[in-house]
Every structure is written in C-alpha cells, then in structure tokens.
Amino acid sequence: MNYFDLTKNSIDDIAIYCTNDEVNCFVSEVNNKGFIYNGFILSDKIQVQTICNINFYPSSKSGKYIPRLEFKIINKKTGEEKTTNKGFVRISFTNSEDGHEEFWKMIAFLYRFKDLVDLGEFENSFKVVSSEAYILQFKDKTEADKIKDLRELLKQAALDEKSLLLILNDTRKEDLKMFLELLSKEKSLEKYRTTYETELTGPGIEAIWHHFLKLHPWILGMNASLKFIRDFTDEANLGIADTTGKGSPKADLLGIADYTSLIELKTPNTKIFTDAKKSTARTNTWSFTDDFLDGVSQALGQKSTWDVYHKSKDIVKEGKVLNQDRIRTVDARTIFLIGNKKIEMPEDSVEKDIFIKRDTFELFRRNNRNLEILTYDELYERSYFSVYGKLPEN
Questions:
Q1: 209 and 287 within one domain
Q2: Strand duo 25-29 + 32-37: pairing
Q3: Cys-Cys crosslink for 299: which of 61, 125, 336, 340, Cβ 3.0 to 4.6 Å?
C-alpha cells in the first residue's frame, strides 16, 4: 500500500480528485494522478510508524464524499499492527515525534478540498485556518485589535517569558534573513516589489527599503542609537507649504518615542565616495559623492525645519493625532542611512586609498554632532548582534 509521508513531504504535492464516473474520490500526486495514496504516514520512528488509512464514501445528503480515517501503529520490522486485547490502541498526538503536526497537516489538507469532501460534524468542532489566511486577516486589523488578539492567544497558550522571547527571536531571525537577501541579491528586491507592490510608495529601490524598514521597526528602532524608537510614520511633512502647496520638506521616516527622530534614506548601492579622487581633495582625504553630500544637506535641512515647525504640525499615526506633550521634539535626532561600507570600504583591504576613505568617513561622522550616519551593512550587523549576541561571520 502507498502512503504519503507527511514527515518529509509537503501537502502541496498532493490533491484529491474525483474518479471518472464520479462515484468516489482519491488522493494522488498533483503531477501524476495515476499514483494513488491509501493514506498518510504521520510519524516515523525507529521501530514503528503511525499511519492513517483514508477512504471516501459518497454522501446522499451533501453530494460530497465522506472521509473515513483509520489510525494504526505499525511495527516496521514485522509489519504487524499494534493492538490491545480489546482490538484497538490509543494513539496520542501530543508532540512532534508522535505526529501531532502531521495530524493537523492532514486535516488542513482535507479542508483544502471542501468542495469535494464532506467533513460533517468535524467542522462544527474544529476550525483549521492556513497560516497565510490568518496572517492576512491579522494584518488588516487595527493595532488595538492586534494587541487584543495576541493577548488572548498568549493567554490560551500559557506561554512563559522564555517562550515569548524565543518566538520574538525566531521572527526577528526571519527579518534578518530577508534583510541580508535584499542587501545581497538583486532578485530579492524584485521579488519583494512583486509581493508588496500595492504598498510601495514609488518605483525605485529606495521605496523598497523604505517599506521594509517601516514594516520591521525594531531594526532601526533598536539599533540606530541607544535610545529606542518605538514606531515610525512615513513621508512625514515637516514644514509649512508655500501658496502653491509646495515647499515643505518630507522625512522618509519620522521616529516616534518619547522624543521624535528623523530618518533619511538612500539605497545600499548609493556611493559615499567618488571612484576617482578629485584634484581639490586635500592630502589623506577623499572626495564625497554629490549623492552623499546632497543627502547630508537634505537630512540637516529637514532637522532644521522640524525643530522650528513641529509645534504647528499634528503628528498623525493611523488616523489619530498623537499627543506632543508626551512625544516631544527637542533638537531632533536625525539619522542618515546610506551605502554599504563593507563593499565600498572593506576592513580587510590593504589598499591605501581604502584606508583614506575609511578614515575620511569616520572623521566626518565623528565631527557631525547633529547627524548620525549609518551604512546598511552596519545596521544589519547591529541588528544581527541584538538577536544572536554575536556578529555575523561574513
């Protein structure tokens, strides 16, 4: 008999089909309807397997097919079924080794074919929701409803603090994985654009990074400085417009904590230094690119405008005006994110020009009190350290 191994394979590879005469249905491979499975392997230990035979019977009431599930524990060496003197054995699906996850994968698989399968009373007792569907529903909820749902889930799950930290870390590890892919693989940028096309604010790469950093606020919030930034609003209008409705600068991100911060973004590919040193550059210095200098001027200009006009501007987050008696603005911290230092100024390089670039960049940063300049690779390293407690190997 053929069994689909849920411990190793994905349910995306199989489907339920009707027979040609429509008197029954069966489970088979998506790409090979001739290969029919009699059931599922739910657990595969050294000596025994937990399997589930599945048969379908037509329902006279619904016109669908009723699944009949038969669970067995099989001795892998002898092929004998494990039973008691009463003719049955209790199978416990209490953890991953016992087939707990595989059992629910099987149930979720049946739910995919509700147009064919009659789940009967089972549906009144259990509700199986795919992770994708739940996430989509969750994302559409308000912040207050999200917090409410999470509190209820955590209460029902009875998770301790250690478990919560593990969950948070797992989530952040996935964020870091995406961060690195966007930083190092051009195809990942296009994939991200396709996924979030309706949410991006523009066509360029900068819009992708803008969206990614706002979607994962902990990356900038924890690592831009020692002061934690809780949340962000995007493309904040900072000043007073002229009579044509123009002239007010916009910050890429406005950081919200007890005091506001401004964040200006360029892309990781934006060069900090010119390829060739200009004749006007002094000894032991290198020439900055126009993109870098323009970005510095833009960020400082935004800071100056916000420091002057913040009292006459409402800070609006998700349709609500925030209380500026609590969220203050005093000499607003300004962060400028640009370039990739590891690529443009690698630490392991022995070239004199690279030494000059590194020293010029560091001196510029240290002597600029009003602006914190970060490169994307530095931000990634800080984020990685906050999750793993060490720097990335590469």
A1: yes
A2: antiparallel
A3: 336
Q: What is the pTM of this model?
A: 0.56
Between 212 and 169, the higher pLDDT residue: 212
Residue 135 lies in a domain: no
CA 351 to chain centroid:
38
Range of the domain at 318: 186-388
pLDDT digits (tens, 9 = 90+) for 165-178: 677 778 889 999 99
Mean pLDDT computed over every residue of the chain: 80
Is 161 within the bounds of a domain? no
Owner of token pair 């911290």: 333
Are residues 81 and 190 both part of a single domain? no
What is the Cα 15 distance to its own chain's centre?
29
Range of weakest confidence among 53-67, 159-173, 293-307, 366-380: 159-173
Q: Where are the alpha helices (DSSP H) in the chain?
A: 100-111, 122-125, 131-139, 143-157, 161-184, 186-195, 205-215, 218-223, 290-309, 341-344, 352-366, 376-388
Q: Which residues contact 188 (CB under 8 A, 6 or more apart)?
A: 178, 181, 182
Distance CA 154, CA 158 (A): 6
**What pLDDT, on a 0 to 100 scale, did the predictor assign at position 133?**
54
Per-residue pLDDT reduced to its tens digit, 231-264: 445 555 554 554 444 555 556 666 666 677 788 8
Please give the residue that has the higher pLDDT: either 319 or 63: 63
Tokens of 228: 């934690």
Strand pairing class (14-18; 25-29): antiparallel
- The secondary structure of 14-34, three-state, reads EEEEECCCCCCEEEEECCEEE
Task: Please count the structural domains in the chain.
Answer: 2
Nearest to 233 by CA among 198, 263, 189: 263
Residues 364, 279: one domain?
A: yes
282-311 pLDDT per residue, tens:
888 999 999 999 999 988 888 888 877 776
Domain's final residue, options 113, 128, 143: 128
